[in-house]
């Protein structure tokens, strides 16, 4: 058995083990685990410094998950699914849910309704249905492999998907969304990277939410991907009690750049059932973006976006930094100074 498979098999999946390790009542965890599965790799568990810290909040079940009456699928992914596992929201790209398994089941997951549930992973029939739809829809140029985590698939099955996509003339690029470098860095093997580099243009978006997740092991995993010529981006979710602090978010973005991962998105927490306790105000996100702008490299300032309910797509938000007076724009810089800029293009 490969090392990463052994490490995955050693993960914590029983609430009693968490309770014993941290001296808590398992009754606080068991009802949640009956509805939403528990899995924490030993690597990620080792990052917890104390009960309730930013790593704990992301992976340990909380009774608050059962006290939320929001929609299970607020982004209307089921309605936007022409064939099982495929989401076609934007004209030129699709999200393909090729796995329902993750190394760690994040408590804030946007797909809590399906991730970790049996019968949701891609099989031969659903793979063929998805590939047929993509091949018969020529406006699709970009395929995003998601889940669950696509990198929990075996190399051979993942390569089958990539090879079939590469044979479709109008598919110009493939993106893979994965949290494996954070939660199961052993998964990023040299064999995997050699396979992935055969299918450029290929992009990988990782998912770091806190600076403490950037461990030497995670940095090494990202280096292997980058050395295979794969551009790396990062999608962070704005989470109460995890990264809703400008200093924490700035440090995260700076450390990502240091390991060759480009910050891409900061997501406002989706209105998903079981995640209300993670939600911050939009003003919190805007204040973080204002702190990033001008106080650190522009490369460290991702888009701050809201994924609009009802499947309406991502909407970027910016701090209020411009107004207009005739042909003159009044621009506010990072120091708060108002700069007059005359628009001479007209």
- Largest sheet data: 9 strands, mixed
Rounded mean pLDDT is 92
Number of strands: 12
CATH architecture grouping: Alpha-Beta Barrel
The whole-angstrom Rg is 21 Å
Q: Output the CATH class name.
A: Alpha Beta
Task: Kindly state the percentage of residues in helix.
Answer: 25-40%
The count of helical stretches stands at 12
Please name the CATH topology: TIM Barrel
State the domain count.
1
Helix/strand order, N-terminal first:
HHHHHEEHEHEHHEHEHEHEEEEE
Question: What structural category do the secondary elements indicate?
Answer: alpha/beta
Short description:
The protein has 346 residues and is an alpha/beta fold. It has helices at 3-9, 15-22, 30-35, 42-45, 54-59, 124-135, 155-166, 180-183, 190-196, 216-227, 246-258, 282-292, and strands at residues 86-90, 93-97, 142-146, 173-177, 202-206, 232-237, 262-267, 303-308, 313-317, 322-325, 328-332, 338-342.
């Amino acid at each position: 058995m490969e090392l990463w498979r052994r490490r995955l098999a050693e993960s914590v999946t029983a609430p009693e083990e968490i309770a014993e390790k941290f001296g808590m009542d398992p009754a606080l965890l068991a009802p949640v685990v009956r509805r939403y599965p528990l899995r924490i790799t030993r690597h990620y568990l080792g990052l917890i410094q104390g009960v309730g810290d930013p790593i704990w909040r992301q992976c340990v079940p909380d009774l608050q998950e059962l006290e939320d009456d929001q929609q299970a699928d607020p982004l209307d992914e089921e309605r936007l699914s022409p064939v099982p596992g495929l989401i076609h929201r934007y004209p030129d790209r699709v999200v393909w849910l090729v796995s329902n398994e993750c190394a760690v089941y994040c408590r804030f997951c946007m797909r809590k309704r399906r991730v970790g549930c049996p019968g949701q992973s891609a099989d031969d029939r659903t793979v063929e249905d998805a590939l047929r739809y993509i091949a018969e829809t020529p406006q699709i140029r970009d395929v995003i492999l998601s889940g669950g985590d696509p990198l929990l698939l075996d190399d051979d099955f993942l390569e089958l998907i990539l090879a079939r996509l590469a044979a479709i003339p109008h598919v110009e690029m493939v993106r893979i969304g994965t949290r494996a470098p954070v939660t199961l860095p052993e998964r990023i093997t040299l064999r995997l990277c050699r396979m992935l580099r055969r299918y450029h243009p290929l992009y990988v978006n990782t998912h770091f939410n806190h600076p403490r997740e950037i461990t030497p092991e995670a940095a090494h995993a990202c280096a292997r991907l980058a050395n295979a010529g794969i551009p790396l981006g990062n999608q962070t979710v704005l989470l109460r009690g995890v990264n809703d602090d400008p200093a924490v978010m700035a440090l995260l973005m700076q450390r990502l750049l240091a390991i060759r991962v480009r910050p891409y998105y900061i997501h406002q927490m989706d209105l998903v059932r079981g995640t209300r306790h993670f939600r911050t105000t939009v003003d919190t996100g805007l204040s973080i973006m204002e702190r990033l702008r001008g106080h650190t490299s522009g490369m460290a300032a991702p888009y701050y976006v809201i994924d609009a309910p009802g499947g309406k797509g991502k909407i970027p938000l910016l701090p209020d930094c411009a107004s207009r007076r005739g042909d003159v724009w009044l621009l506010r810089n990072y120091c708060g100074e108002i700069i007059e800029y005359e628009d001479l293009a007209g």
